[in-house]
Specification:
The chain has ten helices and eight strands. With 266 residues, the chain is of the alpha/beta class. It folds into two domains: 156 residues, NAD(P)-binding Rossmann-like Domain (Rossmann fold, 3-Layer(aba) Sandwich); 92 residues, ProC C-terminal domain-like (ProC C-terminal domain-like fold, Orthogonal Bundle), CATH 1.10.3730.10. It has an eight-stranded mixed β-sheet, sandwiched between helices. The protein starts with 8 loop residues before the first strand and ends with a helix. Bound molecules: NADP nicotinamide-adenine-dinucleotide phosphate. NADP nicotinamide-adenine-dinucleotide phosphate binds next to helix 1.
Length: 266
């Protein structure tokens, strides 16, 4: 996949957070040339992506694109009334099932993909699933687009996408929650606010970089620190005793319920 292939890609909702991040990543990775990229906006045309085609007309975007990425919020989707006959449709919307996308947009070549906000730094995890009418070439396009945004995996069921919408679609939110709880505790112990913020942010960054280098299983990391029998082991045991694992499981269950409900409401 490179500039030479002359792929044309359109991003409906290209002015938004995720649509803009995907557009930036695929331009950086040369998956598309600027003049092969179209983006649509609703209220205001952003001052981004020179050389790309901006339009408020979604059908005009579809007509000039081989591949259309649909990146509006699920609640706005019913307003996007476009015919995508003959096009490859890639939805990144949470909750909207493949069957509903096929029916609304008159195409059977549809992918449901669930990136996260880390696409902005090419570190998204993106699970995806396709209709049976998609080809190996279509799959190669999806792998190139979400490979440019980070790491991608094909999964076998839409139920897996619904679940991962809560787990990885949240991007930095859950690590940020842990970091916030730590920072609040540090402040209670009298630490300077800037020192506390730098300390917890660097803790998360360092943990991420170590994972990137060693790709260890999280359970093994926890076990290694428990076996060390130091301060970390004392904290891990107390956090578990206080219901840490159960709180995470309940939160993810709530995210799954919300993800399925968004699809049911569509
Ligand atoms: N952000 C994430 O981390 C994340 C993660 C996983 C999945 N997603 C999914 O990605 C999708 C986009 O999320 P987001 O966070 O990027 O939301 P966002 O920042 O609100 O972007 C959505 C964009 O769509 C535009 N839009 C709405 N209706 C439109 C229309 N009819 N024609 C053209 N543009 C239109 C909005 O324009 P206005 O500003 O003018 O309203 C906005 O710029 C959602 O479906 C969400 O479920 C997001």
């Amino acid at each position: 996949m490179n500039k030479g292939m002359g792929l044309t890609i359109g991003v409906i909702g290209g002015a938004g957070w995720l649509g803009g991040a995907i557009a930036a990543a695929i331009l950086d990775a040369d998956v598309v040339r600027p003049n092969g990229l179209s983006l649509s906006y609703r209220k205001q045309r952003p001052d981004r992506f020179p050389g790309a085609f901006w339009t408020p007309d979604n059908q005009a975007l579809v007509d000039r694109s081989d591949v259309v990425i649909l990146s509006v919020r699920p609640a706005d989707w019913t307003e996007v009334k476009v015919n995508m006959e003959g096009k490859l449709l890639i939805s990144v919307m949470a909750g909207i099932p493949l069957a509903a996308l096929c029916e609304s947009h008159n195409t059977r070549r549809v992918f449901r993909c669930l990136p996260n906000a880390a696409a902005e730094v090419s570190k998204s995890y993106t699970p995806w699933i396709a209709t049976k009418d998609t080809s190996e070439d279509d799959r190669a396009v999806v792998r190139a687009i979400f490979g440019a945004c980070g790491v991608q995996d094909e999964v076998e069921t839409e139920a897996a996408i619904d679940y991962l919408t809560g787990l990885t679609g949240s991007g930095p939110a859950f690590p940020a929650m842990l970091a916030k709880a730590m920072m609040d505790d540090a402040l209670l112990h009298g630490l300077d606010r800037d020192v506390a913020r730098r300390a917890v942010n660097m803790l998360i960054i360092g943990a991420g970089r170590l994972l990137e280098r060693h790709d260890t299983c999280p359970g093994d990391t926890v076990q290694t620190f428990r076996e060390y029998r130091g301060t970390t082991a004392a904290a891990i045991d107390e956090m578990r005793e206080a219901g840490f694992d159960n709180a995470v499981a309940r939160g993810l269950e709530a995210a799954l319920r919300k993800s399925v409900a968004m699809g049911d409401a569509s």
